[in-house]
Amino acid sequence: MMKTRRKWSRVTAAGLVACLAAASGAAAQGRGGATARAAAPKDYTGYWVSVVTEHWHLRMMLPPKGDFSMLPLNAEARRLAGAWDPAGDKGNECRSYGAPAIMRVPSRLRIQWRDDDTLQMDIDSGTQTRLFHFRATPRPDQPAEWQGFSVAEWEGLRTTGRGPGRATGQLRVTTTHLRPGYLRKNGVPYSADARLEEYFDTFTEPNGDRWLLVTAIVTDPRHLTQPYTTTVPFKKLPDGSGWDPTACRVDEPR
Questions:
Q1: Strand pairing category for 195-204 and 210-219
Q2: pTM of this prediction?
Q3: In this structure, are 89 and 161 located in the same domain?
């Protein structure tokens, strides 16, 4: 009888451990198994338009040649920007529409899910497309592009309130593998070593207006003395009636 009890105890303990392990594995799979779309704490999809509330002369017009105001440029970057000639951009008109600069170009955005783990942002100024890849990393041979390769994640996910509650958090995007381009249309450069980190957040005002805030941090060991940080707002549009894709262009200095 004693041997039977001991054997039963060992079997029961082993079974309990197996069950707990299975439950733990299932819980872990449930937490990590949801797609990015299913786990999204907020809805970023739809049409948005730039609202230029500051730095009008730097965003709505071509800054004068040699205007480096508010940019932490090193001596080499200043030299290159000072020697900028728009004629040299023929065939590379999109240099000022790359990921480190595009969100400051007055534009309309169209955001939608390409698939369950890829968020797509189309930008009508310059007819650019950005892809935010969840659960992905760039390949070793990843080519450099104007919009680079963007890795996305939901940051700060938590649930508020009782019961199911309401999920909060924001979108964080890190972009690398960039083609060299301009931080401003007047030839202020960023290099292929530049790295872009962005935070996208949304909120709704009491009157129902929805806003998208994009905070961007550009680091570039070749041209910047410190990270360059900007924040730009976009307002939600009811539809895409104003959608107007235009080609990249090079503006002539005043």
A1: antiparallel
A2: 0.83
A3: yes
